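Exercise: predict the structure of this protein bound to pyridoxal-5'-phosphate.
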Amino acid sequence: MNTLFSQLPSIDGLLREPALQALTAQYGHQFVTHTLRQMQEDARTAILKEGALPKWHPAWAQQAATRLAAQQQSALRPVFNLTGTVLHTNLGRAPLAESAIEAVSTVMRGAVTLEYALDEAERGHRDRALASLLCELTGAEDACIVNNNAAAVLLMLAALAPGKEVVVSRGELVEIGGAFRIPDVMRQAGCQLVEVGTTNRTHLKDYRQALSDNSGLLMKVHTSNYQIAGFTKTVDEAELVALGNQVGLPVVTDLGSGSLLDLRQYQLPAEPMPQSLIAAGVSLVSFSGDKLLGGPQAGIIVGKKALIAKLQQHPLKRALRVDKMTLAALEATLKLYRQPELLRQNLPTLRLLTRPAQEMLCQAERLLPQLQPAYDAHFSLEIAPCWSQIGSGSLPVDRLPGYAITFRAKDGRGSTLNALAQRWRRLAMPVIGRIQEQRLWLDLRCLEDETRFVQTLTS
Ligand SMILES: *Cc1c(COP(=O)(O)O)cnc(C)c1O
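Solution:
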C-alpha cells in the first residue's frame, strides 16, 4: 500500500506540467489546485478502500481537464424538451420570445429607470409602466407584479383579509404541483378558511349563509388541473360579485394560468380570460407570467385601484417584488399581445401549442432516415401519432394531437430503453423524451432546431 501511496504525484509537480499550465491559464490557479487536491483525496480513498490506484492514474492532467470542464458547465443546461409537455415546470415552463430576451439583456447591462420617473421629480414605482400596459390589455384599473402566482395569492389574502374569514367553495380547494395548496396558503396569509358547499355542488346561498361579521373576502379558485364532472353546480364570478356588492366584500379570483386571448380561435381548449373576469366586476384577478401567457416567471394581479394600492403598500410586496429582468421580459411579452395577428409567429408558447400535426409528421419523415443508421443495430424506429399536453396545471385530459419518433429495443428489454434514455440525458445538450408502452417517445412538438438535434443524436 505504501508503494501505491508513493506513486501519487505531488500537486506542485503536476502544476509544472505543460498540460496543467494550460488548464491554469484557462481556469485559474485556485480552481485547478482545488480540483487536484480533490483528485488526490479520491486517489487516497481508492488505495485505502480498493487497494489500487484510481482508474484514471497516471493520466492526471486528462482527468483534471474532464473534471474542470464538468464543474464549469452551467447548472441550468439547455435541453431538448421532447417530453410532449409544452409548459414543463421542471424544464422551466415558457420559452421566451426573442423580443423579451433582447429586453432582458438590455436592462442587465446597466442602470435603468426601474423606480425613477424621468419626466417628474418624484420617484416612480416599479410596476408603473407594466400596470398601464396590463390595464390596456385587461380593462383593469391597476396592476401589481410579484414573483409568481403563488406569491400573488399570498399577497392578496394577507393584504385584504388579515385575521378575517375567506369564503371558498369546497370544490375549489386546489393543490397545484410543488406544495401549493389553498388551505395552506390561507393559513400562511393569516386568514381563516371558510369552506362552503360540497365537493361537487356549491350554490350562491352557501356563500351567503357562510357570511359573518368577520368575513373579509369571497374567493374563487380556477380548478386548473382537475375537473368535477356529472351532477355539479358552481357559482360564477358575476353572481358572486353581485353578492359581494350587496354585503360590501371584495371578490378575488386565482385564475392560475389565464389567457389574454380566446384560445378557442386556435382550436385549443378554452381557458378563462382575466379581462372577462374584470368585466364581470371581480375586484382582483391573479395569474401566472410563465404559463399560457408565455413570459417569465411572475405573478400578475389586476383589478380595482384601491385594492391594488393596499397590495403595493403591504410589507410582503417588498419581499415578493420582481427585479428589472423579470419586468423587462414581462413588458416585452405583454407588448406582443398588442398585435394578436402576429402572436403565433412571435410568441414561442403559442407557436408550439398551435403547431399543425401535419408539420410534425413532415418533420418526423425528414428526421427518421437521418437517425436510423445510428440506432438501427439495437432499436426499431417508428413514426407514431401522439398526444402532447399543455402542462403547468392545465387539464391533463386536454390533449393536442402531434407526432413522435419512437424507439423500441430490439431485445425487448426495458433496461435497454432506460439505458438509451440515460445516455441521452448525458449528452452535451440532453434530449429528454418519455418512456411509455415499452417505447421511448420523442414528441416533436417542441423541436425547432433540427440540425442541432440530428447532430446531437448521431455524433
Ligand atoms: C399554477 C397555479 C398556481 C401557482 O402559480 P405559480 O405561478 O406556479 O406560482 C396557483 N393557482 C392556480 C389555480 C394555478 O393553476
